[in-house]
Write a structure and sequence with these properties.
Layout lengths: L2 H4 L29 H16 L5 E2 L1 H9 L7 E5 L5 H10 L3 E6 L3 E6 L2 E6 L11 H5 L2 E5 L2 E5 L2 H9 L9 H11 L5 H8 L3 H14 L9 H16 L7 E2 L10 H5 L4 E2 L10 H9 L6
Parallel strand pairs: 2-5, 8-9
Antiparallel strand pairs: 1-2, 3-4, 4-5, 6-7
Helix pairs in contact: 6-7, 7-9, 9-10
Amino acid sequence: MADEAAGFPMTEFAVCDDQSDPAAAPPAPSVGPLSAETAAFYRRMMHSLIDGGLPFLVGGAYALARYTGIERHTKDFDVFVRPEDAERTLALLGEIGCATELTFPHWLGKAWCSDDFIDVIFSSGNGIADVDDDWFRYAVDEIVLGVPVRLIPPEEMLWSKAFVMERERFDGADINHLLLHMADRLDWNRLLRRFGPGAPVLLAHLTLFQFAYPGFAHSVPDPVIQALFDRSNRQASAFVPGSKMCRGTLLSREQYLVDVHEWDFLDGRLSLDGSMSAEEITAWTDAIDTIP
């Protein structure tokens, strides 16, 4: 979903020069009361990947705590790797006693040991947010459970969360909290490149942020809002009125099935917007009732 591929002209925005501390949040996220056994297991897991020479990033609750100060007690540990490293990551976790599976070959693997779970993430459920070199280039140094690691960048966290709009889960509040604490430190140039033709989605979230925090609406640069308006308008005008394209499937795997199954809309995940195959879409859809 690059801007260049979509034919959108690029606009450059100034980035905050002070990148030494990208978050006004607690310096070392603890994220809740873990049992001694679970904490030891997570440390062993991270050391295993480090010793195995496997590049990885930590996301989920630990990154959210660093960037927003919100500590969320979750039952799993999110590890982000490049797609080509997913199976090797699962193999290394298998060597320390984890049961593993490549749950969805287009974005997610899982590992578990007793009641402890690890998500191995290499894209997003809609196939858009592949973990590429920029995730690592702009990652943030952190100490997690005493282990020096790197966190997913706030821009990529926002990008991947922006498309999560299921009936049972909407990540808009996380995005608003990211913006509240990080808007003046974000690389807006990279964010706009990330969203590409998904510019209306970013514009929608920024509009919600300005509604939720009117006193901080100025935190988002006005030229960013204008650029998103312009891109959204150009994109809308590029479609013939009445074109039966449904990009809602990029936001929710369930709530727009009626459009593609009964109303003859083209599934946006099969267009240039997405990168999923028909087989991957079927597997992802079939798991709606079993995996959140």
